[in-house]
Specification:
Radius of gyration of chain A: 22 Å
Strand content of chain A: 5-15%
CATH class of the largest domain in chain A: Alpha Beta
CATH topology of the largest domain in chain A: Rossmann fold
Mean pLDDT of chain A: 95
Structural class of chain A: alpha/beta
Strand order of the largest sheet of chain A: 3-2-1-4-5-6
Largest interface: A-B, 25 and 25 residues
Low-confidence stretches of chain A: none
Oligomer: homodimer
Largest sheet of chain A: 6 strands, parallel
Number of domains of chain A: 3
């Protein structure tokens, strides 16, 4: 059985992402006959992706259709699924904001303007979907998944599901411990980028003692010689200290992307190096640049293939399925193929102690009947009070600041940052952010 | 009609407080025939209070009985009301802890050891009441009222009501604006020491515009010449900035006692002087010392009267009723005399958006049928996100740290403090606190 769908990709100009998805779709026989509509505001990137997708499907003999548009409306019309990967403003603007805020004492910046742009894009998209494809699922893969999905849930009737790769962090734990991945099971609920491993089993038995023994016997030696790439933060001193402080391992991005709650890892480069190894982790200037360079190198490779019709796309996208959940989830929903996934959906009681209208990251069974999160119970009190509540408070403040258009709400975000030393510092940073090129619309919105 | 009651005062050695209450009781005819049992662990202060109470009642011809005990059990037995004014450990220990933490970078200290002592005393007292006087009301007047009453509510069946004077701060606003107090009404719900004036009326009309005009036309001149005493923080630059930031006036202690949320007022003496005038407010070294000196001076006056049986107690306690709510509330309850009070009681929906098992400060109607808080609705979102949630989070962390006996929960409190610059600073401060004289029991508890 196969069910063709219409999938719109918003922000499809990311060739790496879009062609990865095309590859997976080519290899998913049960979605044969589907249509992907690529949408992006960057015409040249859009055309390249469109052209490569056609070539790639032809190479693999896959029965797929592709469209491309620079407008949202034709992309959304008739869509069954809308995948949002867009980064409003792009990396360049984000980097310029980071540099500017760093001059004001915020080492590596603080999410403010980028956040407002993303919320605006996400909410606008979800509202357009209400009108143009009210039955479609919005699959949100660009950040901030936590706040964005919560916003869409509260303000629209659009069904939203947020996806991320962070939960695969348990695999790095298994790898470092020398465990066979096929014999490992785990569970790690929480908020996106703030998930905590409540279960970790190897061959049916609790495997947390193996982590404890590794910490006691091997961690120091491991850290003495490790030269982690930016993504490898799972067994960092930071992750292990969080485990010791909170009682559960933070998984994936939780080991690096929490800022407000574990500020002492983020104060300066020296701190980052101490807690995430010589490179300073994913979010140091060097680590992040390496990530951006890798992205650029991939795009360059893809461009070279694009410019030479004699080369095969499969050179840069070998035809083997990724571990991306997007298509398996679509397959589960439309073909009633049951599967177990890690998703971000409105809580509705799955994670106790969190309001129902907050989007949580939890395991879920997905099939033709829909997405049913598993009731994961409670996280330990120390994690709730130390990380989850503060993270939720930060999310609520961000959403409030976005919705109100009131400059005081932006000030509140800056004042709550542990790096802020004086009221004036926050005022000046905010002034600088609102007067920099690219943020004119935001400045008008907050001048109300 | 008069109904004699048995009232136990725990921590009765504070002569100023106890004799003030005796004065009010002498002047409350409807409680004629009542018994006060003074309880304190300081024998000489206890005896002085006991003796002065007898003399004072005799002077005024009041029909009252007095007892004194150094044990809790005889004080509680048969009690109708138990008034807790005790400060476990006393001011000297508290000052020593402040000085020590200041050496570690926490200007004017941080509530940790004092908090644990107070919780221990409050919970122990409420548990003894469950056994010895299960129908009695516990009236909690020593701090922390917010956390203490919440703790007692959650962990015992003892009925608790917390009282404070902070809400009278609206009178200082009226005074500075030149309004006739009798024509002013107000409402200021929240948590104890974190209340926000939702209503302020003069002769029936909204009087907030009078505050706005004062800020525009008179505030600068007022601040140029003011020489506030420690208690006068209600119209300080800090209070007005909070009003401008959050949209409602903070009332009473809310204008000075919030630390975690408005850290920029508390960084150092210069900040305190800027925000609370030349003395630096209630909580600067100088302001607090003035308060302690005033306390000492009062005690000295009282001692002089005590040591000379020919002098009248009424010299230091002129027989006119205070605005203390304690006896009017008791009168309302036992004599069914309805009254409108500001109390701290379990929320049960009075303040929307706050869990039911949290004690809130709200207006209440009190009479023979009990204490009925008024439904005050919601506080504005900016106050909830900026102050109420963070304050509740701090309270929950303090209670968790008290109940767990886990050192990590104390670390979490220190790490959350905006003044903490490094993990090591927090560790060292905590080590110092736990090894200082007077904190041996606490050190054992957290060494578990």
């Amino acid at each position: 059985m196969s069910t063709p769908i219409r999938l719109a990709i918003i922000g499809a100009g990311s060739a790496q992402f879009s062609l990865g998805l095309v590859r997976d779709l080519c290899l998913t026989d049960s979605l044969r006959g589907s249509t992907i509509c690529f949408m992006d505001i960057d015409q040249s990137r859009l055309e390249m992706v469109h052209e490569l997708a056609r070539r790639y499907a032809a190479e693999l003999g896959a029965e797929l259709r592709f469209e491309a548009t620079m407008e949202r409306e034709p992309a959304l019309r008739e869509a069954d699924f809308v995948l949002n990967t867009a980064l409003a403003g792009g990396h360049d603007q984000e980097e310029a904001e980071r540099a500017l805020l760093q001059e004001h004492g915020y080492y590596r910046g603080i999410h403010l303007a980028d956040m407002v742009r993303q919320f605006d894009l996400m909410l606008g998209l979800a509202r357009d979907m209400e009108r143009l494809c009210p039955k479609a699922w919005l699959i949100q893969s660009s950040n901030p998944v936590f706040e964005g999905c919560t916003l869409v849930t509260r303000k629209t009737t659009t069904k939203v599901i947020g996806l991320c790769h962070g939960h695969y962090g348990y695999r790095e734990i298994a790898h470092v411990l020398g465990l066979e991945l096929k014999d490992v099971t785990f569970e790690a609920p929480g908020f996106n980028h703030c998930i905590w491993m409540t279960h970790f089993r190897y061959q049916g038995r609790d495997a947390y003692p193996l982590i404890d023994r590794w910490i006691e016997e091997k961690a120091q030696g491991y850290w003495r010689t490790w030269r982690p790439r930016y993504g490898q933060t799972q067994m960092s001193p930071a992750a292990i200290q969080m485990y010791q402080l909170y009682g559960l391992m933070p998984i994936g991005d939780a080991s690096r992307a929490l800022w407000a709650e574990v500020w002492w890892y983020h104060l300066d480069l020296a701190a980052k190096v101490r807690w995430w190894g010589p490179l300073g982790g994913f979010d140091s200037a060097e680590g992040w640049q390496l990530y951006l360079d890798d992205l650029a190198r991939n795009v360059q490779q893809i461009r070279e293939v694009a410019s030479d019709p004699r080369r095969r796309v499969a050179e840069v996208f070998p035809p083997s399925k990724s571990d991306e959940q997007i298509l398996p989830i679509i397959d589960a929903l439309v073909n009633d193929h049951p599967g177990y996934f890690q998703v971000n959906v409105p809580n509705q009681g799955a994670l106790q102690g969190v309001p129902d209208d907050v989007v949580v990251e939890v395991p879920a069974m997905i099939d033709g009947k829909g997405i049913r999160p598993l009731a994961v119970g409670r996280l330990p009190k120390r994690i709730m009070l130390g990380v989850m509540w503060p993270r939720l408070l930060e999310a609520e403040r961000r959403l409030a600041a976005f919705l109100s258009g009131d400059r005081r709400d932006l000030m509140q975000l800056l004042l709550a940052d542990h790096r802020t030393r004086t009221w004036e510092q926050a005022e000046e940073a905010l002034d600088a952010l609102l007067t920099m090129p690219g943020n004119e619309a935001m400045a008008r919105y907050y001048a109300k």
